[in-house]
Write a structure and sequence with these properties.
heterodimer; A: 193 residues; alpha/beta; two-stranded antiparallel ribbon; 8 helices; B: 179 residues; Rossmann fold; six-stranded parallel sheet; 19% strand; binds thiamine diphosphate; binds magnesium ion
Chain lengths: 193, 179
């Protein structure tokens, strides 16, 4: 089974302009462990919102690849947004679900994916035609290449080792997290507009 | 269509002009009859991205993403949809993200349908509980100034703000039982 930090390290290696939104909890700690900075938005709340934040961002910045990294619990809360994304069809948006079949952050209770729910099939059913099962780091590299080439919308699902990882916390001040990404994209005028 | 402004009302078209004047680029919505004309105007505009969401909380998250990327967005919904947004509005407080909402009221002045009343009566309290600055427009001539105040509050002071368009402006849906 794949290691979640190795997946994140691989998909964010040589990421170029790629922006990354990570859902609350383990996914946010993962991207922070790989390296924190203005191209990352690690979420502290808004469970169920990660994919739609990615959509709004992708529509606002159509020339910049956007990757959403979401837990399975996060994605299950937001399956409707898969239909919304399919309908909007932004070519610069990719969603990668790290499926440990559990709500890790809250004590490892089983999610529906533990009992047979397949989020990749749900994404296909929502109308996202480019889907990929991630079974190796080569698959991760292929996903990164497609995301950077903006061949989306993409949906990828990786079954991962559920063992918890050391906590690596990003800044807790959300205003900073938002402002630094806006400044990265828009320059100093981000704060005076 | 019922519970929608009559054809003589100009505020739906004026709302479209207002969104354009304020540089709105993304419009998230779950349809409501009261917003039908405004939605048609937005859909006909290639510079506005209309994002029909499956539940209103998606629209809240969309506004967060749009602002991160440097675009202004607005959420159009019926009062029932406000209930679907509650926790997602945390994003605005977490990041200080502007989140303007234009809400058409049900369960309000002269309501016919009992099912609309619980959420309609809770709409303002729920929004305010999440830190939203709420203004009501209960006369047609108040809609534009109120919505403009909402846009200014949201984008100039980085918070959620809402205009509630009262059912007195929209007319109450009667399912053909008009007496
Ligand atoms: C709306 C809401 N419900 C519940 C929670 C509690 N909660 C925080 S993280 C989490 C689990 C996340 O699970 P998943 O997305 O699969 O991430 P994992 O830690 O397993 O990688 C839950 C249920 C919350 N923060 N917000
Ligand atoms: Mg999980």
């Amino acid at each position: 089974m794949l290691d979640r930090r190795e997946i994140c390290a691989e998909v964010l290696r040589d990421r170029g302009p790629m922006l990354c939104v990570a859902s609350l909890g383990a996914a946010a700690w993962d991207i922070t462990a790989i390296g924190d900075g203005p191209q990352n938005l690690p979420l502290w709340g808004g469970m169920g919102g990660a994919a739609m934040i990615g959509l709004g961002l992708a529509l606002a910045q159509p020339e910049v690849p956007v990757l959403v990294i979401a837990g399975d619990g996060e994605m299950l809360m937001a399956v409707g947004s898969l239909a919304t994304i399919a309908h909007q069809a932004p070519r610069n948006l990719a969603v990668l679900v790290l499926d440990n079949e559990h709500y890790g952050e809250t004590g490892m209770q089983a999610t529906a994916t533990r009992h047979g729910t397949d989020l990749l099939v749900m994404a296909q059913g929502a109308g996202i035609s480019r889907t990929r099962r991630i079974a190796s780091l080569d698959d991760v590299r292929a996903l990164r290449a497609e995301a950077l080439a903006m061949q989306g919308p993409l949906f990828a699902l990786a079954k991962i080792d559920p063992a918890p990882k050391p906590l690596v916390l990003p800044p807790r001040e959300g205003a900073l997290l938002q402002a630094r990404m806006r400044e990265h994209l828009l320059g100093p005028s981000a704060h005076t507009a | 269509m019922e519970s929608a402004p009559n054809a003589q009302a100009t505020w739906p078209d004026d709302l479209y002009d207002l969104l354009k004047r304020h540089g709105i680029r993304q419009v998230a919505l779950v349809p409501d009859a009261g917003h039908a004309r405004l939605i048609r105007r937005c859909e006909a505009d290639n510079d506005l991205r209309v994002v029909t969401v499956t539940t209103e909380e998606e629209g809240v998250a969309l506004m967060q993403g749009a602002w991160l990327g440097g675009q202004k967005a607005v959420l159009l919904m019926q009062s029932s949809g406000v209930g679907n947004c509650i926790n997602m509005l945390s994003l605005s407080a977490i990041h200080r993200c502007p989140m303007p909402m234009i809400v058409t009221m049900r369960g309000d002045f002269g309501e016919f349908n009992p099912a609309q009343v619980p959420m309609g009566q809770a709409t303002q309290a729920v929004l305010e509980a999440m830190g939203t600055i709420v203004h009501r427009a209960d006369r047609a001539e108040d809609v534009i100034p109120t919505a403009e105040a909402t846009l200014k509050l949201a984008f100039n002071t980085f918070r959620p703000a809402a205009t509630l368009i009262g059912q007195r402006v929209l007319g109450a849906k009667t399912f053909g039982k008009d007496d």
